């Protein structure tokens, strides 16, 4: 990413003058899995008019990393500007983007937009953050799907989760 690019701020995409306003993220397709996350952020309403109504979206729940500065962050592009996000969130977004390339038909219906709190909520604006965190339940309910990213898990866990999903009904597991 060109370091001379300006930094993204929430002022670039302000929330609507509506108590149910949120931001949604669109991750642009990539040629290679490791390509930089290039995103578009929009502001919509959960209960607005047709012009501001939120499109169908997914929500991403991921493991927030500790405040340990050695863990790192990553720069992504948001509306053509650079933004620093947690490494764990960048990895979760990369995995989510990869789902669109999956041959597994259960992932073929992935929504065009996604809500991810670390980007869609201005973490440095305490009044906004307080309101938006209070709306998270509504956001998750409105989402078409909620993707839970556990981060890097030990070998074998992924296959255990796949088996649990496949046999959830006969095992009494509800995923």
Note the main attributes of this structure:
175 residues; single chain; four-stranded mixed sheet; alpha/beta; 7 strands; 27% helix
Walk me through what this model shows.
By secondary structure, the chain is an alpha/beta fold. The chain has one domain. The protein is built from six helices and seven strands. It has helices at residues 87-99, 117-120, 126-134, 136-142, 157-166, 168-171, and strands at residues 21-27, 38-45, 57-62, 73-78, 81-86, 113-116, 146-149. The strands form two sheets. A four-stranded mixed beta sheet has the order 1-2-4-5. A three-stranded parallel beta sheet has the order 6-3-7. Strand 4 (73-78) and strand 5 (81-86) form a beta hairpin. It is globular, with a radius of gyration of 17 Å.
In short:
The protein is built from six helices and seven strands. By secondary structure, the chain is of the alpha/beta class.
Low-confidence stretches: none
Rg (CA only): 17 Å
Judged by helices, strands and strand pairing, the structural class is alpha/beta
Q: Give the terminus-to-terminus CA distance.
A: 38 Å
Integer average pLDDT: 83
Q: What is the N-to-C order of secondary-structure elements (H for helix, E for strand)?
A: EEEEEHEHHHEHH
What is the number of domains? Answer: 1
- State the share of residues found in helices, binned by percent: 25-40%
**How many strand elements?**
7
Strand arrangement within the widest β-sheet reads 1-2-4-5
* Main beta-sheet strand count, sense and barrel state: 4 strands, mixed
Amount of beta strand = 15-25%
**Tertiary shape:** globular
DSSP helix count? 6
Organism: Podospora fimiseda
InterPro entries: HET (IPR010730), HetReg/Transcr_Mod (IPR052895)
Domain Heterokaryon incompatibility: 57-152
Protein name: Heterokaryon incompatibility protein-domain-containing protein
């Amino acid at each position: 990413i060109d370091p001379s690019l300006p930094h993204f701020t929430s002022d670039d995409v302000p929330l609507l003058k509506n108590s149910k306003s949120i931001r949604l993220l669109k991750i642009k397709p990539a040629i290679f899995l490791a390509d930089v996350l290039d995103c578009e952020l929009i502001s919509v309403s959960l209960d607005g008019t047709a012009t501001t109504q939120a499109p169908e979206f997914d929500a991403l729940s991921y493991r927030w990393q500790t405040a340990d500065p050695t863990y790192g962050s990553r720069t992504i592009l948001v509306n053509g500007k650079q933004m620093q996000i947690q490494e764990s969130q960048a990895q979760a977004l990369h995995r989510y983007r990869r789902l669109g390339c999956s041959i597994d038909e259960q992932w073929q219906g992935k929504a065009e937009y996604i809500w991810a709190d670390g980007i869609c909520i201005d973490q440095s604006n305490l009044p906004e953050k307080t309101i938006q965190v209070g709306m998270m339940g509504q956001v998750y309910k409105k989402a078409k799907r909620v993707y839970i990213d556990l981060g890097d898990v030990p070998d074998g866990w992924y296959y255990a989760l796949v088996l649990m999903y496949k046999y959830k009904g006969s095992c009494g597991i509800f995923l």
